[in-house]
Amino acid sequence: MYKGKTIGIISLKGGVGKTSSVANIGAIISYEFKKKVLMVDANFSAPNLGLHLGLVEPKTTIHDVLLNRAAVNDAIHRHEAGFHVIVGAYVSRRVNPERLNQKIGCLRELYDLIIIDSSPNLNGEILATMMASDELLVVTTPDYPTLSTTLRAIRLAKQRRTPITGIILNRVRSKNFELGISDIEEAAQVPVLSVLPEDINVAAAIASTTPVALHAPKSSASIEYKKLAACLIGESYNDPRLWPKLKSLLFRNMTKDTVNRALLQNERKQAGI
């Protein structure tokens, strides 16, 4: 994996699990795969990445950096799980989002992966994430209102020519009224890389200000996050649970998201990422 790859995680609707995805993917790649990871909160108007990670009263924030009150290195906080994070100020003056790429660009050589948590609003903040990212992941839920905003986010990213690696389909209850993978891929023309189940452990983890992958590492959501995180860096992850192993042996059919991850994993292995 080459140094300084930057992934932006976006959505145009709040509450779909964007920040949880940032926190968990970053934590897993750092803790499980021993990579140097930096997470950056670029939701400048309503930052909450720090709240997901237990950083309630940060001394220095991305707002201080963008307002030229502090050097970017001074805003980096080390989490006890090993990864680094730059959080936002919960009360702050307005900043110029266009400075984001310039300010964090110097950090690329220090990290294997930088993950940016974007704003869920169609404004300069989400554009700043796109400009600072090498690729994007889009988070959606399996319903028409969220899909419509997802399509808008994808269209905007394509206009900005920022590659979209895939979609994270979150809060899936496996009900007949939900949109399926094929529906979403057909509408978006982007592969679904992960299907995350509705999992009460996620809410419990948020309440404990800890990523669910660390709070409940054997939970269904944690396992799916680990599969996704692994393929993003060209690594393998074997589901340790018995039933999925038996199911794969008995039915020998791979779900579409499993196929998409395998393709991405192979592509990144060949590229040496």
Give keywords.
273 residues; alpha/beta; Rossmann fold; eight-stranded mixed sheet; 41% helix; 15% strand
In short:
By secondary structure, this protein is of the alpha/beta class.
Question: What does the secondary structure layout of this molecule look like, with pairings?
Answer:
Elements: E1 5-10, H1 18-31, E2 37-41, H2 49-52, H3 62-66, E3 77-78, E4 84-86, H4 100-105, E5 113-117, H5 124-132, E6 135-140, H6 144-159, E7 164-172, H7 181-188, E8 192-197, H8 200-207, H9 212-215, H10 220-232, H11 242-251, H12 256-271
Parallel strand pairs: 1-5, 1-6, 2-4, 2-5, 6-7, 7-8
Antiparallel strand pairs: 3-4
Helix pairs in contact: 1-10, 10-12
Task: Describe the protein's architecture and organization.
- With 273 residues, the protein is α/β, with parallel strands linked by helices.
- It has one domain (5-271): 3-Layer(aba) Sandwich (Rossmann fold), CATH 3.40.50.
- It is built from twelve helices and eight strands.
- Strands 3-4-2-5-1-6-7-8 form an eight-stranded mixed beta sheet, with helices on both faces.
- The longest helix is centred in the middle third of the chain and has 16 residues, at 144-159.
Q: Regions with pLDDT < 50 over 5+ consecutive residues?
A: none
Second rung of CATH, namely the architecture: 3-Layer(aba) Sandwich
Could you say which overall geometry the principal axes of the C-alpha atoms support? globular
Kindly state the mean pLDDT as a whole number? 94
Evaluate the radius of gyration: 18 Å
Instruction: Report the biggest beta sheet as strand number plus sense, adding barrel if it closes.
Output: 8 strands, mixed
